[in-house]
């Protein structure tokens, strides 16, 4: 038996023993997770800076701060979430009670990406723990310092037969996907998501896939351009654009394009200085392969602003481009970097045709003061989630589910939705033995008449 098989079997044994089923056990593990993040906080800042040059501001706002909120929310509401839910019972079932019990799946596999290496490993883990599962975490090999720290933190804090971190490359991921997990939670690219889903289907393992896509940002002629520019620059260039819900491209009403570009330039310089590469506050591109991919995009259009880069340090300044079209490589792939192409439109209905080139984006952002048009965009275009007059901020509320649709993902999480994702809702009908309704049985003389009346 391989080490991976042994780990999975030990976790299955712990789960079958019923240890994770109680409220006391789960709340204790969530508290330990919270204390773990507090204890290792200085090293978390250090590892994320080493891997991605992340500033302390970005680590706090996009990694640690979010996780602390999620854990606190789960601790506060866990007892309520775990309770069986009583639902109505139809008249035809007189004397019975209908209940929904919350059953954990068992042993879950969490595969996390490199762009938010702490956040996207621990956020689903919060839901898995709250729901009563054990978990194996596979962090990204592209952020080695953070992955090493995650393994150390989990190993020092939890029993290995409860939570385990397994590091490695694609070969290790393949070996993990061959194991009989009870649930798989994957965050990453669409091509790898297809592989995960295919492997899971061979064992009929349920999955959540948090993928990506080309998320549009639409700016209408009546938008407040100063606010729009500030919020777009923040959402796009956060983490150097390496965010699954970053605005991938702008669709700007042609009457306000020039003014918007001017505002965008001003906001970039306010937030990051005229040359962000000279500061130690701008995130670097994760590796040379991704850096070269982004550099090739700069050849596909007209650079309006930015475009400077430093290959040795894998840094690229925020860049605005136009004169691009849907036949370019840049517009066929998710950009995942600090390049923002700008396209224009005249009538709002044209937006639909643009988005059809890359359907079902993970996010959509629309800037306008017109509520009727806001409603038209929200109702008529398919996307995972998004904002009106803002970007990215929908991720920051644990009252909203986060997830994609179609090619941008399957399933959802955050807040209670994380608990629900890792929980099977088990339906149970408790029947009375105080009496028996004879009309339900085939030998009842009046049964057919009574049933027909009940069903109507």
From TrEMBL:
**One MF term in the entry's GO annotations:** aldehyde dehydrogenase (NAD+) activity
Can you list the GO cellular component terms from the UniProt entry?
A: cytoplasm
What keywords are assigned to this protein? NAD, Oxidoreductase
Could you tell me which residue ranges the Aldehyde dehydrogenase domain spans?
3-428
Gene Ontology BP annotations: aldehyde metabolic process
Q: Which PANTHER family match?
A: ALDEHYDE DEHYDROGENASE, ALDEHYDE DEHYDROGENASE TYPE III, ISOFORM Q
In its UniProt entry, what is this protein called?
Answer: Aldehyde dehydrogenase
Organism field: Tenuibacillus multivorans
């Amino acid at each position: 038996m391989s080490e991976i098989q042994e780990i999975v079997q030990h976790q299955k044994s712990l789960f079958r023993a019923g240890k994770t089923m109680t409220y006391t056990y789960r709340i204790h593990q969530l508290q330990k997770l919270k204390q773990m993040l507090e204890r290792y906080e200085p090293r978390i800042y250090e590892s994320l800076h080493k891997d991605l040059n992340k500033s302390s501001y970005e680590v706090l706002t996009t990694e640690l701060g979010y996780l602390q909120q999620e854990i606190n929310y789960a601790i506060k509401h866990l007892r309520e979430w775990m309770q069986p839910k009583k639902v109505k019972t139809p008249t035809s079932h007189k004397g019975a009670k209908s209940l929904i019990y919350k059953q954990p799946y068992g042993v879950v596999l969490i595969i996390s990406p490199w762009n938010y290496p702490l956040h996207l490993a621990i956020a689903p883990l919060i839901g898995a723990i709250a729901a009563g599962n054990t978990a194996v975490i596979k962090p990204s090999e592209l952020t080695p310092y953070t992955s090493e720290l995650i393994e150390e933190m989990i190993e020092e804090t939890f029993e290995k037969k409860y939570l385990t971190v397994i590091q490695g490359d694609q070969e290790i991921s393949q070996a993990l996907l061959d194991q009989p997990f009870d649930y798989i939670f994957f965050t990453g690219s669409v091509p790898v998501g297809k592989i995960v889903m295919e492997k899971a289907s061979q064992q009929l393992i349920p999955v959540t896939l948090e993928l990506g896509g080309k998320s549009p940002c639409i700016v209408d002629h009546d938008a407040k351009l100063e606010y729009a520019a500030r919020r777009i620059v923040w959402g796009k260039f956060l983490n150097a654009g390496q965010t699954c819900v970053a605005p991938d491209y702008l669709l700007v009403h042609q009457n306000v394009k020039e003014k918007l570009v001017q505002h965008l330039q001003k906001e970039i310089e306010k937030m990051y200085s005229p040359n962000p590469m000279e500061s130690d506050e701008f995130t670097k591109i994760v590796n040379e392969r991704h850096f070269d991919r982004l550099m090739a995009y700069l050849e596909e259009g007209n650079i309006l602003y930015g475009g400077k880069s430093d290959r040795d340090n894998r840094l690229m300044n925020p860049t605005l481009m136009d004169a691009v079209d849907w036949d370019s490589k840049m517009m066929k792939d998710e950009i995942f970097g600090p390049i923002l192409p700008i396209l224009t439109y005249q009538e709002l209905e044209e937006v639909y045709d643009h988005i059809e080139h890359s359907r079902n984006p993970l996010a959509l952002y629309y800037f306008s003061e017109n509520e009727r048009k806001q409603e038209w965009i929200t109702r008529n275009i398919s996307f995972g989630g998004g904002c009106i007059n803002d970007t990215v901020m929908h991720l920051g509320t644990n009252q909203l589910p986060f997830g994609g649709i179609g090619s941008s993902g399957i399933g959802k999480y955050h807040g209670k939705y994380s608990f629900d994702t890792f929980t099977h809702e088990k339906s149970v009908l408790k029947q009375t033995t105080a009496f028996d309704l004879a009309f339900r049985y085939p030998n009842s003389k009046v049964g057919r008449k009574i049933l027909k009346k009940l069903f109507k």
